[in-house]
Design a protein that fits this description.
Strand content of chain A: 15-25%
Helix content of chain A: 40-55%
CATH superfamily of the domain at 18-87 in chain A: RNA polymerase, RBP11-like subunit
Domain DNA-directed RNA polymerase RBP11-like dimerisation (chain A): 30-102
Number of helices of chain A: 5
Structural class of chain A: alpha+beta
Family (chain A): Belongs to the archaeal Rpo11/eukaryotic RPB11/RPC19 RNA polymerase subunit family.
Low-confidence stretches of chain B: 1-5, 23-39, 68-75, 77-105, 162-218, 234-245, 259-313, 345-353, 444-449, 539-555, 1126-1140, 1170-1178
Organism (chain A): Lentinula lateritia
Largest sheet of chain A: 4 strands, antiparallel
Pfam families (chain A): RNA_pol_L_2
Mean pLDDT of chain A: 77
Oligomer: heterodimer
Keywords (chain A): DNA-directed RNA polymerase, Nucleus, Transcription
Strand order of the largest sheet of chain B: 1-2
CATH architecture of the domain at 18-87 in chain A: 2-Layer Sandwich
Chain lengths: 155, 1398
């Protein structure tokens, strides 16, 4: 069988850098960042986080080949911040979001353990509001009411 | 002894045997065994193991020594009587069995008795008497009588055996049981047991003395005969088995036909019985049956005698009932099998299906007459009730009748039916006409059993084809009518067909009859029918009445059926090249044709005329393919079958046909040796032609043209002898010495003098005259071209020679004739737009074009190879020709479905004009380029050679110097120079586009054959035009070129994995070719830019017709963006610097080129060209989807391409400006809502980065109106618009913001509608909701924009940002305020009133 070893999908080789940043010479404030041993999970998340940031003009990623465990992230900013810095900002924000999500999740579980009767409904509601694909709910402020879609989508 | 051996013990076998033990005498091996045992040596004899008597044998012997046992068993034999006692239908019952056995015995007795008597008599005779008798016998019967008698005796002996064995089987066959029932199955009935064979064996003369056959039969086991049972397996005599029908079951509802009153029944009449038994006793058994018949007759007579007197007359005499009562009193009264006898009057006219019924001529009988036609017309034999005529099912059934006359008659009806189906007669009954249509259009979906009617008819004919006599003849009629048909005659172009090279008539196959023909089976049948036609013995009656051919051209040797075969073959050969090849490859068919139609019988003394149609068929076959021509050369050339007619025949028609055939062969470069072999003959014919040309007549001109055409073809062969097969058959030196050039020139002088004389008689005859001269011009042109290559000093001498003649011929009068011709041509072209289908006019156009191109060819031939002092060889109306060609290129006949053969002269004229153009005064390379771009689009299949020439000439001109002089036409200098310039980079792609690899490989010869085509072409015929349908998969389709052919290399890059890509063709790319993807894209874009620039400058009228369309350009640019992988083996790998492959669109040059090539389609350019907003008629179809069809095929929708395009943009674009602009065209309202949904909903996150100003939008002719109207109504797209507005607010800019605001506002405010149904749509739940969401959730700017946005169709122009947000007139303001107050409330109105106030 020619299938590559499963661990090759997530274990870095000897001396391999997990992240390569290439400044684009022709386009201002643009960079292509190659992230190794990662796939759509991280790529899509990062792209969404970047797109939600006002400094970012363009953010996109692609997986050049499904059998090669890396993706290319392309970032262009408006010049106030360098692409690599904005990426690290995005990562920090993502980590924050995820840890708060984790905390919320654990808290809800704690509630559920103490109060087994009403816990299920509360958990469901929490997840429904945080289910925003590109994380824009917090930025615009109108997101909360936006979630209530049936006021005009009902036609 | 016998008691001990009774038990089958081993000990028994140890007993020593005594020699006195009786031995079985029948077996030879055993007799040998006994003889060894009897040897006198005293020692036990040496015995081989195999010869020792086995336990088995001993058992048998033991069994033999138990006679009491075997007799006891044989007594238990199951009797056969009970089994066959049940009355069966066959004649084999117990009495018969017994009688037969008795008969056997009695026969022997009788014979022995007679022979004994004879012997006694012979004994009593004296010697003299005996000698006398012998002499008498010998005298009476001849000397061989003894031999005969001996044989008779042998026969008798043998017959005895046969008879008896066959008779033995009788009981088996009378068995009712199913055959082969396995032994032991319950219910399986015993047929017979072998024990019976003991009794039978005694009657066997072959082994009368065999001790016991039963014992031998039971060799393999110790079984009594009653233990062996024979069950019916397979009847040993199949004949009898067929007769043996089981009797009907008791409870089945079978109807008796009466009882057999033969011998099987006990016979009451004693006198008959007596005679019968008497006869039976004396005869052999075979005769018994005959006697039976005899007795039944007697019996019937007896019955008749007995009953006739006593019968009371009750019913009318002669009726069926009368007969029944009189003769068959035991038969039931109402036997349904006899229903046909009852008169039709009393049968009630039950409801019948309204089937179409045909008379004997194959014409449908109108429903009004069906019931009233008299019966003597013969139409009532299969009528239901009183209806006359035959239904189709009747006819098909009866075509398989065993009565030959019936079969023949019905086949003739089918001929009529076919003819009727094919002719549409408006005068006919409406119902019948409708029925005809429905029959013709009888759908043939896969799976439904019945094939279309015409196919059924065809196959009914084919089925009867091998029959002899009338059936075969009629079957041939049916097949002929189906395949060829009198009403199905295709348009005949005459000799013109071969002048233009011919065409496969693929699409004329009506109802798929020809494709349905199983050629592999039918052709051998045709051959055998050809050699022995079914009507060969019908006499001269049919021959004289046949109307198949012209009476004078038919030779009397052939029959109509042969002629029909010939015309069927001709039709097949015309149908397609593949069929033509099959015909030629059919073994013996061509030879058969030659023998039947062409080679005169050896007995005929006079020079007979070969069949013209056959030579025509040969010509068609040869024109179909090179392999055919080769095969025909071998078959005909060896014996020079045709040449003898050239020599001997005085018939001009024969000569013409044969010369046409030779012309076709010479176009493949074959058989040109006949020109040298028979040069005296051709001289003679040349003289003949010259003599004829002085007097005008239709046939004379035909001969002249054929001759001149043949000379032209041979001249081309001689020009380059390497190209002929075999090479060097005809040399230029020979041509020179035969003075063909001078001959042609003198012929031309004569012809044109004649033409001048006849100038005033009428226009049409002039055209014919001129076209005769035109073929002369072509020949002379070929001569001069050849001289240019082969003559001394480029053929200068020849040129001056011919030039002198031409100067005289092409005087001012000739120029005037040309002018008239061109004028006529132009008017015809202009009127042709309206009534396109008049082929007569189109034929005239074609012949005019052919005349003009011949003149141009001659003119070009007169031009010296090197540009000279500018003196023109002779005068032609150059300006008129130029105008005409410009008109022709622009004409829309290229897009119409016209006869492809007749288009060929037009495209050839354009090509020749293109060759002429540089020689004209005032020519310019750029002008020539413009013309070339125009002409190359007009070329069709068969013009590949021209197209390749033109394309390489175009690319030759486009050098870096050329570009530098014109400011670099959209590409920097290095693009024109690098990698060998445009030509080297692009020529493999374009060459392949023009002439893609086809399966099978075809090279259609151009209209004017060249030396190249002589050596290369595989066929002379162009395919019929119906092949150009949309494919499911991308592949280059060849000529005619697609309008974006300059950008076609992109397709090869994108589809580099496809089998049809040029990258997959071995040898298509030269070894030195090393262009990279970027090089190719640059070069192709440069070429497209050149085309546009040149056309714009020199032929602005043509650009919309010839150049690529807007959507083609847009789609091609999309393709450039989709190119992300390196395909060429160029240097873009070096750009790899860790971030993946360099995208093509990042290249600066490419980006600039893309920008420039898209420039004319932007809104800015549209506004600058026409400032008025004109509501264009909106085409409902999506132009890009159509433009993408050649690349994507029908298998991949454009939507999928767009999805990939968008996701590519999403991942790698960095918001590339041109990339962004290209995203928008498919989201206009011309396209389905899915495209907008994809961009605005699924990929809404890219909207923020998508910055496209209104001016930069790539719009079609309709401008941005295409995006704004009709107003979007799809709810999910509308929701996406609204969401984008609210979510991104100010982030959404430019054109996108305009779009979103427009559609949202238009769905809120009712004043966007011009139409008067405002009151209907004023209040709407959706408007209310939309407005509420905008006001409550939108940001300040969004609310302001939506509330103030206006766009009024009355303004005749789309208002863009900011104009559309500025002024709101009073009435509109009031309306909107009211609506807000009504829908949401006064409070909200107060909040937003400021927006309107400003």
């Amino acid at each position: 069988m020619n299938a590559p070893n499963r661990f090759e999908l997530y274990v870095l080789d000897e001396g391999e850098a997990p992240v390569e940043v290439n400044e684009d010479t022709k386009i201002p404030n643009a960079a292509t960042i190659k992230i190794l041993k990662q796939d759509h999970t991280l790529g899509n998340m990062l792209r969404a986080q970047l797109l939600s940031m006002p400094e970012v003009l363009f953010a996109g990623y692609k997986v050049p080949h499904p059998l090669h465990p890396h993706f290319l992230l392309k970032i262009q900013t408006d010049g106030t911040k360098a692409p690599d810095l904005i990426l690290s900002d995005a990562c920090n924000q993502l980590i924050g979001t995820l840890s708060s999500l984790e905390a919320k999740f654990k808290r809800e579980f704690a509630f559920k353990e103490t109060d087994s009767s009403g816990g299920a409904g509360v958990t469901g509601g929490t997840f429904a509001t945080s289910d925003d694909p590109y994380g824009t709910g917090a930025g615009t402020g109108g997101g909360a009411s936006w979630g209530n879609r049936d006021d005009y989508l009902d036609f | 002894m016998t008691s001990t051996s009774n038990s089958p013990s081993l000990i028994g076998s140890v007993f020593e045997r005594k020699p006195s033990i009786p031995k079985p005498p029948s077996s030879s091996s055993q007799s040998r065994f006994t003889s060894t045992l009897n040897s006198k040596t005293g020692f036990p004899p040496v015995q081989h193991r195999s010869q020792k008597s086995s336990a088995f044998l001993k058992n048998i012997e033991n069994g033999r020594r138990k006679p009491e046992l075997s007799s006891e068993r044989s007594a238990q034999v199951p009797s056969i009587v009970p089994q066959s006692a049940t009355p069966g239908p066959g004649p084999s019952t117990v009495p018969s069995q017994n009688q037969k056995q008795n008969g056997v015995g009695s026969t022997d007795d009788w014979r022995s008795h007679v022979s004994a008597e004879n012997e006694a008599r012979v004994q009593a005779m004296t010697e003299e008497e005996r000698a006398d008798e012998t002499r008498e016998i010998l005298e009476r019967f001849g000397p061989s009588v003894s031999e005969i008698l001996r044989r008779a005796r042998e026969n008798r002996e043998r017959n005895k055996d046969v008879k008896f064995t066959s008779l033995e089987e009788v009981p088996f066959t009378s068995e009712r049981e199913p055959l082969a029932s396995p032994i032991g199955l319950p219910g399986s009935q015993l047929v017979s047991s072998l024990s019976r064979s003991s009794s039978r064996a005694s009657t066997r003369p072959s082994s009368p003395n065999s001790p016991s056959r039963a014992s031998r039969k039971l060799r393999f086991a110790e079984l009594g005969p009653d233990q062996v049972h024979v069950y019916p397996s397979a009847p040993s005599s199949p004949k009898k088995a067929l007769l043996a029908l089981p009797p009907p079951d008791e409870d089945s509802n079978a109807v008796s036909l009466g009882t057999f009153k033969g011998r099987m029944k006990p016979i009451d009449l004693e006198d008959v019985t007596a005679s019968q038994t008497h006869v039976e006793e004396g005869t052999a058994e075979i005769q018994v049956e005959q006697v039976e018949e005899g007795t039944t007759e007697i019996q019937v007579e007896q019955i008749e005698k007995g009953t006739a007197e006593t019968q009371v007359e009750q019913v009318e005499e002669g009726t069926a009932e009368y007969i029944r009562q009189k003769y068959f009193p035991s038969a039931p009264a109402d036997n349904p099998d006899l229903a046909w006898m009852s008169s039709s009057l009393d049968s009630s006219p039950h409801e019948q299906t309204p089937d179409l019924r045909f008379d004997l001529n194959g014409m449908p009988i109108p429903s009004s007459k069906i019931l009233s036609l008299p019966t003597h017309l013969g139409l009532h034999h299969h009528a239901e009730g009183t209806r006359a005529g035959y239904t189709l099912d009747d006819i098909f059934l009866l075509t398989r009748s065993t009565v030959r006359a019936q079969r023949a008659a019905m086949l003739e009806v089918l001929v009529g039916v076919t003819r009727w189906l094919r002719t549409s007669d408006t005068k006919e009954d409406v119902d019948i006409e409708a029925a005809r249509k429905s029959l013709l259009n009888l759908p043939n979906p896969e799976g439904s059993g019945t094939p279309p009617l015409l196919k059924r008819i065809l196959f009914a004919g084919l089925e009867a084809l091998p029959e002899r006599g009338a059936v075969g003849v009629r079957a041939m009629d049916v097949v002929w009518e189906c395949i060829v048909g009198q009403t199905n005659v295709t348009e005949d172009l005459g000799d013109l067909e071969f002048e233009f090279g011919g065409m496969e008539e693929g699409k004329t196959d009506e109802g798929g009859l020809i494709t349905a023909l199983p050629l592999a089976d039918v052709l051998p049948q045709f051959l055998s029918l050809l050699l022995s036609p079914p009507d060969s013995d019908l006499g001269d009656e049919r021959l004289s009445t046949s109307t198949l051919n012209q009476p004078e051209s038919r030779s009397l040797r052939t029959t109509p059926a042969q002629q029909q075969i010939l015309s069927i073959l001709t039709r097949l050969a015309r149908y397609s090249n593949a069929y033509a090849e099959t015909i030629v490859q059919e073994k013996g068919l061509i030879e058969g044709l030659l023998r039947v139609f062409i080679i005169p019988p050896a007995t005929s003394t006079y020079a007979s005329i070969p069949d013209l149609a056959t030579i025509r068929l040969l010509t068609i076959l040869a024109s179909a393919s090179r392999t055919n021509a080769e095969a025909l050369c071998q078959k005909i050339g060896a014996g020079d079958v045709l040449l003898r007619f050239v020599v001997l025949s005085t018939n001009d028609n024969v000569l013409v046909e044969i010369m046409l055939f030779y012309t076709i062969l010479a176009r493949y470069g074959m058989y040109s040796r006949v020109a040298a072999d028979a040069k005296e003959v051709w001289w003679k014919i040349g003289d003949h032609v010259v003599a004829l040309s002085s007097s005008y007549s239709q046939s004379n001109t035909r001969l002249v043209r054929a001759y001149v055409g043949l000379i032209e073809a041979w001249l081309i062969c001689a020009t380059d002898p390497h190209r002929t097969t075999p090479s060097h058959e005809l040399l230029w030196s020979q041509v020179k010495s035969w003075e063909w050039g001078a001959g042609l020139a003198s012929l031309l002088t004569k012809c044109s003098r004649l033409a001048v004389e006849r100038m005033d008689t009428g226009e049409n005859s002039i055209r014919i005259d001129v076209s005769t001269s035109a073929s002369l011009w072509r020949s002379l042109g070929a001569y001069l071209e050849g001289a240019k290559l082969n003559g001394i000093r480029g053929g200068e001498e020849e040129r001056t020679e011919v030039g002198l003649v031409l100067k005289r011929v092409f005087d001012s009068g000739a120029v005037r004739t040309f002018r008239n011709l061109i004028q006529d041509f132009k008017t015809k072209l202009q009127t042709m737009g309206m009534e396109m289908k008049t082929t007569v006019a189109f034929r005239e156009i074609a012949s005019s074009a052919s005349i003009l191109s011949s003149a141009i060819r001659l003119w070009l031939g007169c031009c010296p190879p090197s540009p000279s002092d500018g003196s023109l060889p002779f005068e032609l109306p150059f300006a008129d020709i130029s105008d005409l060609c410009a008109l022709l290129v622009r004409h829309d006949l290229w897009h119409l479905d016209l006869h492809p053969l007749l288009i060929r002269p037009l495209s050839t004229l354009l090509v020749l004009f293109l060759r002429l153009s540089p020689h004209l005064p005032g020519s310019h390379p750029d002008l020539w380029l413009a013309q070339a771009f125009g002409v190359i689009k007009a070329l069709r299949r068969g013009d590949e050679e021209y197209a390749l020439q033109i394309i390489s000439q175009i690319l030759d001109i486009l050098t870096s110097e050329w570009a530098a002089q014109r400011g670099g036409v959209g590409a920097p200098d290095f693009v024109w120079k690098e990698k060998g310039g445009l030509k080297a980079v692009l020529i493999p792609f374009l060459r392949y586009e023009i002439n893609p690899e086809r399966e099978p490989y075809t090279y259609v010869a151009p209209l004017f054959p060249s030396t190249r085509s002589t050596g290369m072409c595989t066929t002379l015929r162009i395919p019929s035009s119906h092949h150009r349908d949309v494919t499911t998969e991308w592949r280059p389709l060849g000529l005619p070129l697609h309008s974006d052919w300059t950008l076609s290399p992109f397709n090869h890059l994108l589809r580099s994995g496809s089998d049809y890509s040029v990258f997959k063709q071995s040898g298509a790319l030269p070894d030195s070719w090393d262009a990279s993807e970027i090089d190719i894209v640059r070069a192709a874009l440069a070429l497209a830019m050149v085309e546009r620039e040149v056309l714009q400058r020199f032929a602005p009228l043509m650009i919309s017709l010839v150049g690529p369309k807007g959507e083609d350009i847009v789609f091609a640019c999309m393709k450039v963006f989709m190119l992300e992988h390196d395909v060429g083996n160029g240097d873009s790998k070096t750009h790899y610097n860790g971030e993946g492959l360099q995208e093509v669109f990042r290249d600066e040059v490419v980006a600039r080129q893309l920008h420039e090539i898209l420039e004319p389609y932007t809104v800015k350019a549209l506004f600058s060209s026409s400032t008025l907003y004109v509501p264009s008629s909106r085409s409902s179809s999506a132009p890009l989807e159509l433009a993408s069809l050649p690349l994507l095929g029908t298998a991949v929708p454009f939507y999928q391409f767009y999805t990939d395009f968008l996701s590519l943009y999403d991942s790698i674009s960095f918001s590339h400006p041109i990339f962004s602009r290209l995203l928008l065209p498919p989201t206009s309202m011309l396209y389905a809502a899915d495209y907008r949904k994809l961009l605005w909903n699924d990929y809404s996150h890219v909207l923020r980065g998508l910055r496209v100003e209104v001016d930069d939008v790539i719009a079609g002719a309709g401008g941005i109106e295409q995006w704004l109207y009709p107003v979007e109504t799809a709810p999910d797209v509308l929701g996406a618009f609204l969401r984008a507005l609210i979510k991104y607010g100010e982030g959404l800019q430019g054109f996108l913001r305009l779009l979103a605001v427009h559609h949202v506002a238009a769905n809120i405010w009712p004043d966007f509608y011009v139409d008067a149904h405002i009151e209907e749509i004023v209040f709407d739940e959706r408007r209310n909701k939309l407005l509420r969401v905008v006001i409550e959730q939108g940001g300040m700017e969004v609310v302001k924009d939506v509330l103030r946005y206006r766009q009024s169709p009355q303004l005749r122009r789309i208002l863009c940002s900011p104009a559309c947000f500025q002024e709101v007139d009073e009435s509109c303001k009031r309306l909107r305020c009211d609506l807000i107050a009504n829908w949401i409330g006064e409070g909200t109105l107060e909040r937003v009133r400021g927006v309107f106030e400003r």
